[in-house]
Amino acid sequence: MNIKSGDTVVVISGKDKGKKGKVLTALPKENKVIVQGVNMLTKHQKAQGPMQQGGIIHQEGPIDISKVMYYCDKDKQGVRVGYKFLENGEKVRICKKCGEVLDK
C-alpha cells in the first residue's frame, strides 16, 4: 500500500471526486483509507447516560485505496508513488512525476 496515515491525498473517482484531505487512518488489510472530510457518513447515536448527549453525528467513512492518489505539493496534483533505494540503503517513497522524496 503506497499511502500512509498523515499523507495528503486527492480523490480521483466517486461522489467526492476532486476533494483533497489528510489520511487519518490507513487500513491495509481492507485496502481502505479514512480521509478527513471525504465520504461523510451520518450516524444516529443514542444517549449513553445523563452526561453524554444523543443526536446525529457526522463522521468520515473508509474509502477504497484505488480511488485516491497521493497529492504532491510541488506538482499541485495527484501523482503516482514509486520506491527508490538511497545510497545508505534506505528505501524511500518518491513522486514519479518530479522525483521528489516523499518520506522525510
Give a description of the structure:
With 104 residues, the chain is mainly β. The chain has a domain at 8-78: SH3 type barrels, CATH 2.30.30. It contains no helices and ten strands. A six-stranded antiparallel beta sheet has the order 6-3-2-1-7-8, with no helix packed on it. Strands 4-5 form a two-stranded antiparallel ribbon. Strands 9-10 form a two-stranded antiparallel ribbon. Strand 9 and strand 10 form a beta hairpin. Pfam families: KOW, ribosomal_L24. Belongs to the universal ribosomal protein uL24 family. GO terms for molecular function: rRNA binding; structural constituent of ribosome. This is Large ribosomal subunit protein uL24. Residues 2-29 form the KOW domain.
How are the secondary structure elements laid out?
Layout: E1 8-11, E2 20-27, E3 32-35, E4 40-45, E5 55-60, E6 62-64, E7 68-72, E8 77-79, E9 81-85, E10 91-95
Antiparallel strand pairs: 1-2, 1-7, 2-3, 3-6, 4-5, 7-8, 9-10
GO molecular function: rRNA binding; structural constituent of ribosome
Subunit structure: Part of the 50S ribosomal subunit.
InterPro entries: KOW, Rib_uL2_dom2, Ribosomal_uL24, Ribosomal_uL24_C, Ribosomal_uL24_CS, Ribosomal_uL24_KOW, Translation_prot_SH3-like_sf
